[in-house]
Write a structure and sequence with these properties.
The chain is an all-alpha fold. Among the domains are: 303 residues, no CATH class; 64 residues, no CATH class. 72% of the residues lie in helices and 0% in strands. The protein is built from 20 helices and no strands. It starts with a helix and ends with a helix.
């Protein structure tokens, strides 16, 4: 009965992971993402969640008094297949696809060659590692290639997960607790709004400069010498340029940058040489810069829009301005949920639930969740501090795993702390500056490179985190430990590394708790590991006050702009063309767009 229940659990879990991952990625991914890249990203998420879902079953197998060799062979084979598929995906396929998508070449072969060339550093590292392995194998004779691969991958993942958990175990409970108090959370978000707005405008200016250079390059094209390859490159560059111009117009609300001069050259554009191989290479570099600038501008805009939405929501909650039933129904427009809004009973019921959540339940639930997460963080850190010792332990989680526990009880004891560890690590990686602009952006705004990067990062973290969790709960003789234990013979990166290194999690948690993490990184020269969403510095009152004022002003400006745009859309839907009701800012933008007003209309106006 337990066997059938375990098999049903694995089958149901695999189907649920596949379905949820597919629906989530379909919501996040851009519609232009190729099917191969989408399936690769989906496979990365499914394999990562599969590792997390299979660990509780493996723990139950190790604790179960029953022995079934057939079932054990099945579990061992599953681990081998999942682990090595994940290894090849995150260390080989995803990096190649990321660079392939970013390449500016105009043929499939050229993009693939550029991708391999840009990954040559990693390939060189693999070659050097292989040579070292040959030397070690010839001397030692008992360390295989599999053990070195597992040890290297686990060491990298453990290093990254230690940094991430050191931040997440403190930041997640603190974040939930601050969300219950909107004014406290808004102080942090106002400060971040200033830096995020500057980054957004910087990416727009960069996109505008690259667009201007691409216009100048296309306008300087010579038609005297016909070359099929060059003409195809110009056609692809022209199509990408038009897409970038449309994106720039959307991001800037119709404001255009300086046009080219009469000679066709934009400011800063450099005339190219003849149409030869070097010309094709320069076009490829310009194409790559154009694609990269558009991606960064879109990502920065998505991050800014997400921050503005959260700020507006928290401001409304703080001022007790709750949405009406009509506003809730309008927010569903464009999705299949909008059909449910046609029913008055469903609309009223949903509105009542939202009002109950925002008015009464939200602060209490968030504080309770923050307290529970804080308690779970303390339990995890205490277990990590004594992981190196075999004689005594502070791990309270180890007390939950005894022989004779039921199947579903064991699954619950495993999934809750393990899922929390994975969530804190993956949540934290998007708060660190090392993540750059990569992220998961809703409403079909996540580009191909971001999808692949997020999938590969989660795949690299899943196995080390699960192996770390098994040391934490002190359950031995699992099939996963048997497979990962092949690296114990590897010097330095073997078993002792996995038991001693996680002690740093407690030290990092203490640094974040005392808000000295950023200053410590500055002393060590590791600013890339700094946290973007850090709270305001307590010893810089004047600077913090200026940031709060500027951030509040930026959010208020966005509130007015969105209100004006909403009013304009309502006027257009009613068919009211009265110009006097359209906001002045939008009237000026329309006049600049059709050429009635010059771009520098304000400077050209008489005093």
């Amino acid at each position: 009965m337990l066997l059938s229940g375990g098999a049903a659990f694995l089958l149901t879990g695999a189907m649920a992971v596949g379905a949820v991952s597919s629906l989530a990625l379909l919501h996040y991914a851009q519609r232009e993402v190729s099917w191969f890249s989408f399936l690769t990203s989906l496979l990365g998420f499914v394999l990562s969640f599969g590792i997390v879902a299979l660990v509780p079953y493996d723990v139950w197998e190790a604790l179960s008094a029953e022995e079934d060799k057939g079932r054990q062979v099945l579990v061992d084979s599953s681990w081998e297949l999942i682990y090595w598929a994940t290894f090849l995906l995150c260390w080989l396929l995803c990096p190649i696809l990321i660079e392939y998508e970013a390449a500016g070449d105009f043929t499939v072969y050229g993009r693939l060659r550029a991708s391999l060339r840009r990954n040559a550093a990693w390939c060189l590292a693999y070659i050097v590692l292989g040579l070292l392995l040959v030397v070690v194998l010839s001397v030692g004779g008992n360390i295989g290639l599999r053990a070195w691969c597992i040890a290297a991958s686990n060491a990298w993942g453990l290093l990254l997960s230690t940094v991430l958990m050191g931040y997440g175990l403190v930041a997640v409970p603190r974040h939930l607790w601050r969300l219950a108090n909107p004014s406290q959370q808004l102080e942090i978000m106002y400060c971040n709004a200033v830096a995020m707005d500057e980054a957004r405008l910087s990416t727009q200016f960069e996109l505008q400069d690259v667009i201007s250079e691409a216009r100048g390059e296309i306008s300087s094209r010579s038609t005297q010498m016909w070359d099929t390859t060059i003409e195809r490159a110009f056609a692809i560059l022209q199509a990408t340029l038009e897409e970038c111009e449309l994106l720039h117009t959307e991001l800037t609300n119709g404001a255009r940058g300086p046009r080219e001069t009469q000679g066709g050259q934009s400011c800063g554009a450099v005339p190219r040489g003849g149409e030869d191989a070097s010309r094709l290479e320069s076009l490829g570099e310009l194409h790559r810069a154009l694609k990269q600038a558009s991606l960064e501008a879109r990502r920065a805009s998505c991050r800014w829009d997400g921050l503005v939405r959260r700020c507006l929501l928290l401001e409304d909650i703080e001022e007790q301005l709750y949405p009406t039933a009509v506003e809730l129904a309008t927010s569903w427009q464009g999705s299949w949920l909008y059909m449910l809004c046609r029913s008055h009973a469903i609309r009223s019921c949903w509105h009542s639930l939202v009002q109950l959540w925002l008015r009464t339940l939200r602060p209490h639930v968030l504080r309770a969740a923050g307290g529970l997460c804080g308690a779970l963080s303390v339990v995890i850190v205490l277990g990590q501090l004594t992981m190196f010792s075999q004689s005594w332990s502070l791990s309270l989680l180890s007390l939950l795993f005894k022989e004779g526990h039921g199947f579903w009880l064991t699954q619950a004891f495993c999934m809750i702390p393990l899922s929390y560890m994975v969530c804190t690590a993956y949540w934290s990686i998007f708060r660190l500056k090392i993540a750059g602009w990569y992220g998961l952006y809703p409403d079909h705004n996540t580009d191909t490179s971001s999808l692949l990067w997020c999938a590969s990062t989660l795949a690299r973290l899943a196995a080390p985190l699960c192996y770390h969790f098994l040391f934490l709960i002190r359950v031995e003789h699992t099939a996963f430990q048997g497979m990962m234990g092949q690296m114990n013979v590897v010097p330095v990166l073997g078993g002792s590394f996995n038991e001693v290194f996680p002690i740093l999690v407690g030290f990092l948690c203490l640094c974040h708790l005392l808000d000295v993490y950023t200053r410590l990184l500055q002393l060590c020269g590791l600013e890339v590991l700094a946290v973007e969403w850090a709270p305001p510095a307590p010893n810089a009152d004047t600077e913090t006050s200026d940031l709060l004022t500027e951030g509040r002003r930026l959010i208020e400006r966005e509130r007015r702009r969105r209100s004006e745009d909403r009013s304009l859309l309502e006027l257009q839907e009613r068919g009211d063309n009265s110009q006097r009701l359209i906001p002045l800012r939008l009237q000026i933008a329309a006049l600049v767009e059709d050429g009635t007003l010059p771009l520098d209309w304000n400077a050209a106006s008489p005093p």
